[in-house]
Every structure is written in C-alpha cells, then in structure tokens.
Design a protein that fits this description.
It is built from six helices and 13 strands. By secondary structure, it is α+β, with helices and mostly antiparallel strands. One of its GO terms (biological process) is carboxylic acid biosynthetic process.
C-alpha cells in the first residue's frame, strides 16, 4: 500500500516539528490526552445489493471504504505509538469496526434507510466512541470523476446540476506540515484557521486549499484534492511528502488509477481551474478555483 507507507522524505519533513513539540516521549509538549485519532466513515444502505432492514443485516459493503479505514487506523496508531514510545496491545480489525458501527446505530435507534456520517474517535490507549450524523444522499459517490464529451471536443462534468461545483479558495498563507496534517486527528488548528477565509456564500459547497512552506499544494480543509495536469490532462494529487492527509478516498482513487501523485506548485493553480475534491464520506465532487 504505497500511499500508506511511512516514507523517508515524510520523516525528514517532520523532523523539525517533532523536535520542537515532541522533544522526548516522557515530556512532549503535545500529549496523547490532547487529541484523538479521527476517522469519518460513511454508512450507506444503497451500497449493498439488498439494503439492510435490521441492524444485524448491515454488511461490510454498507460501510464505504471499510478496509481502507481499518488500514489507516492501524497505520496511524503505529505512527503515534512509535512517536510517543507507548505500547499498544489491541488490534483494530474490520470485524471490530463493523461491530462498533452496528451497535452505535442500534443504540441510537437510527433508521437504516438513510446514509450517515460516522465520526469515530479513538484514544491511543484503545478506547473508542462513535458519533453519528445524517449526511447527504448521493446516487453515485464517484460522480465527480465522470465527464461527458461534446461534439465540439469539449468535456463537462456529468454531475447533476443540483450538486454543482464547489467553490475553492486558496489559503492566504502557508500551512505548517506536521503529523496532524498527514494523520487524521481531532487536532485541527491548521484547518480551522484556514477555513476562516471562506466567505460563507455557499455553505456546504465551499472549500479552502492549503499549501506548505515550499509553495506546494497540500489538500483542502476537509478533503484531499486533485487538479488536472496541463500537459496531459491527468488528475494529479499532491504527494504525501507535501504534508497532505493520507486519506482513504485518496488511497482508493490511486489504487484504481483514477488519479496520480505529483508535485503541484500553488503558483500553477489559477482562478477558473477545475479540481476534484474527495473524502471518505462524500466520495468525489467537482470544484472550481474562484479565489
């Protein structure tokens, strides 16, 4: 799983940050109590051939990207336990995560005919809690990838007009690369700060793109991103070494060759450029740089 490997260049980028905030495992500035590992997961009844009518009938296919979520959780636990020098004798498996989701849906009495965003929060010690929120119903979670060819040779997105493109804004200043940008946790200061530039003209359809101190595009505040490479028209997403999140949807799209990894310089991102935005809850949507 190339995109989930701890690369040497990623370790190098982290070195200054880790020396500053994690001087040693016994007295780090940021402690394990300061954050939780986070995974936002989509439950969707339409993802199985026969939608579940009872909690017992919920299948792995109803949990979008379940194997990718488990793989990232394991990898994230491994990284932070290595960083803090702490042991971890529990194991996160697909069966464990599916069981937690079933039990949480049942305990909260959630109707099974709706999709949900499940917010999984995990402490380094192994305790877990799940929050469940309703989310948008989407007939095709990959619709942002699809294009329609026209007689004049042009192409447009096949997304329904009701979905429309998201407005993407470029952050006004660079963002600091850290383990908390590459790994999904509740320590989201850099993203919360970046989102302050959003004008709020289209709530729910606005995103801000972040870039690092090397002038490289990283990601969005709640999404991974890809942009069309001008020389060949391929969708390219920033390398992990940019400091971007090792997202589950990013990994899914890379493995299926929908996108490629490459360095994307923020100076080459212009107003009017199309992007695709993706995460493990909404799938893939289209965006356009507007500011």
């Amino acid at each position: 799983m190339k995109s989930l490997q701890l690369e040497d260049d990623l370790k190098s980028i982290y070195s200054d940050y880790i020396e500053r905030y994690f001087p040693n495992s016994k007295s780090p500035t940021i402690t394990p109590d300061d954050f939780e590992i986070l995974s936002t997961i989509r439950y969707d009844p339409s993802l199985s051939k026969h939608p579940p009518t009872t909690y017992h009938e919920i299948s792995p296919s109803n949990v979008f990207l379940l194997p990718e979520h488990v793989a990232r959780l394991r990898y994230t636990f491994q990284f932070f336990h290595y960083l803090y020098g702490t042991p971890f004798d529990s194991e996160i498996t697909e069966d464990f995560l599916l069981k937690q989701i079933k039990e949480s849906l049942e305990q909260m009495g959630k109707p099974l005919d709706k999709p949900y965003k499940i917010r999984g929060l995990f402490k380094l010690g192994g305790t877990a809690r799940l929050e469940i929120h309703e989310t948008t119903n989407r007939e095709n979670l990959l619709s942002g990838l699809q294009e329609i060819s026209h007689q004049d040779g042009s192409t447009t997105s096949s997304m329904d007009e009701a979905e429309q493109k998201w407005d993407v804004y470029v952050n006004t200043r660079s963002s600091l690369i850290s383990p908390f940008t590459s790994f999904k946790t509740t320590k989201r200061d850099v993203y919360n700060e970046a989102r302050k530039i959003l004008p709020g003209l289209r709530p729910g359809n606005e995103e801000v793109s972040l870039f690092n101190s090397q002038g490289q595009l990283m990601e969005g505040s709640i999404t991974n991103v890809a942009i069309k490479r001008k020389r060949d028209g391929k969708w390219v997403t920033p390398l992990l070494s940019s400091g971007c999140l090792c997202g589950v949807m990013r990994h899914f799209l890379l493995r299926r060759n929908y996108i490629e990894e490459d360095i994307v310089l923020i100076k080459d991102v212009s107003i009017g450029d199309e992007m695709i935005l993706f995460n493990g809850v909404m799938g893939v949507v289209r965006g356009r740089v507007v500011g």
